[in-house]
Amino acid sequence: QVQLAESGGGLVQAGGSLRLSCAASGSIASINTVAWYRQAPGKQRELVAAIINGLSTNYADSVKGRFTISKDTAKNTQYLQMNSLKPEDTAVYYCNARLRVIGSFRYLEVWGQGTLVTVSS
Asked: pLDDT at residue 54 above 90?
């Protein structure tokens, strides 16, 4: 069984920074795409940032220049560095990965449990 475990959420003042981590565990053969999503109260889940096929990165317009997605392939861990945080960044943040388990040729989409980020004004 493959799991994603997130950490790093919390309460921060506007203008501050947080770094989220997401570690994948289990019988993982390869990870194709990693991403971070967020869901604010009363809103739909939205894509924040992604590294696609290990090469290209995408960011939501609202976080460009402030957030940076990265990954450590050796540790099967992805990160989201969030700088210049704003109250509107308050949300539950979820990590997401498209990966292949050992012994299978099929890719699975796996989600973390979510971590709350609260930005106070």
From this structure: no
